[in-house]
From TrEMBL:
<protein>
    <submittedName>
        <fullName>ActinB</fullName>
    </submittedName>
</protein>
<dbReference type="InterPro" id="IPR043129">
    <property type="entry name" value="ATPase_NBD"/>
</dbReference>
<keyword id="KW-0524">Neurogenesis</keyword>
<comment type="similarity">
    <text>Belongs to the actin family.</text>
</comment>
<keyword id="KW-0156">Chromatin regulator</keyword>
<dbReference type="InterPro" id="IPR004000">
    <property type="entry name" value="Actin"/>
</dbReference>
<dbReference type="Pfam" id="PF00022">
    <property type="entry name" value="Actin"/>
</dbReference>
<keyword id="KW-0804">Transcription</keyword>
<keyword id="KW-0805">Transcription regulation</keyword>
<dbReference type="GO" id="GO:0007399">
    <property type="term" value="P:nervous system development"/>
</dbReference>
<keyword id="KW-0539">Nucleus</keyword>
<dbReference type="GO" id="GO:0006325">
    <property type="term" value="P:chromatin organization"/>
</dbReference>
<dbReference type="GO" id="GO:0005634">
    <property type="term" value="C:nucleus"/>
</dbReference>
Length: 287
């Protein structure tokens, strides 16, 4: 930043710390479930306890892949809206009747992006995290969710809405996933167990939920249920989740905005002069 962009000053802060700030906490257990992975990161007095970080490789990308595989098995065509000029109203599960948009065709990269957007729209509108470990009989009794694709094809989706996101909380039944991968609840309990005894009550008392997957319906409630049975009786459990999905999705950015608006922020900056005097070692001040 100093050498390439010639910025006069800068500050580096970890995502977990910023997510905690966004929720009004300087000490918290930050559960961040994003695109590439899900992590439990303990934060104490504005600093990450690195030896307590626990991660799982399962995140939003895995959920998207599971949705894509489901549609392929059901032979449901994923055509993004950018290719559809018009469509007819059809009955549920009937083949779609639509007209392709004329003109130059999108590039393959743009098509991939738009198909991914379609899959993520399905995830946010249809998927739901079960409030207890997945049971197909119970899932079949829940109301189905109707969804219409850009081509006009539409269907009701039932138990699959709960089965796909269950992998985040119980990956043991997912094909191709190692037995050593932890669900969201065990990530938190394992991380807390790796921290000092004195700060464990404050971590359980401020479990901050952030990241795109936390926008899934029932995510926070399921985490609360899984942790309630594992939290020691002497400690109080509190799940902190922002009200709006955008606040949960962009928690780190909101925390960065809050941090940079503080009157004391100017004393935290790393100046170009300090960088020229100390080199890269000066970045340790942001650790």
């Amino acid at each position: 930043m100093f050498e390439k962009f010639n910025v006069p000053a800068m500050y580096i802060c970890k995502n977990a710390v910023l997510a905690a700030y966004a929720n009004g906490r300087s000490t918290a257990m930050v559960v961040d479930s994003g695109a590439t992975h899900t992590s439990a990161v303990p934060v104490h007095d504005g600093y990450v306890i690195t030896q307590g970080i626990v991660k799982s490789p399962l995140g939003g990308d895995f959920i998207t892949m599971q949705c894509r595989q489901f549609f392929e098995e059901k032979e449901i065509e994923l055509t993004p809206a950018c290719l559809v000029a018009s469509k007819d109203v059809v009955r549920e599960r009937d083949p779609p009747r639509w007209i392709k948009r004329a003109g130059p065709q999108p590039t393959s990269s743009w098509m991939s992006y738009m198909v991914r957007e379609l899959l993520q729209d399905f995830q946010m509108n249809c998927l739901q995290v079960s409030d207890s470990p997945y049971d197909e009989d119970v899932a079949n009794t829940l109301p189905m969710k109707h969804y219409e694709f850009p081509t006009g094809y539409n269907d009701d989706f039932g138990s699959v809405r709960l089965m796909i996101p269950e992998a985040l909380f119980d990956p043991s039944n997912v094909k191709g996933v190692g037995a050593s991968i932890l669900g969201v609840g065990p990530l938190v309990t394992t991380s807390v167990g790796m921290c000092d005894m004195d700060i464990r009550p404050s971590l359980y008392g401020s479990v901050v939920v952030t990241g795109g997957n936390s926008c899934l319906q029932g995510f926070s409630e399921r985490l609360n249920r899984d942790l309630a049975s594992k939290t020691p009786p002497s400690m109080r459990l509190k799940i902190i989740s922002a009200n709006s999905s955008s606040e949960r999705r962009y928690g780190a950015w909101i925390g960065g905005s809050i941090l940079s608006s503080l009157g004391s922020f100017q004393q935290m900056w790393l100046s170009r002069q300090e960088y020229e005097e100390s080199g890269k070692l000066i970045l340790e001040r942001c650790a």
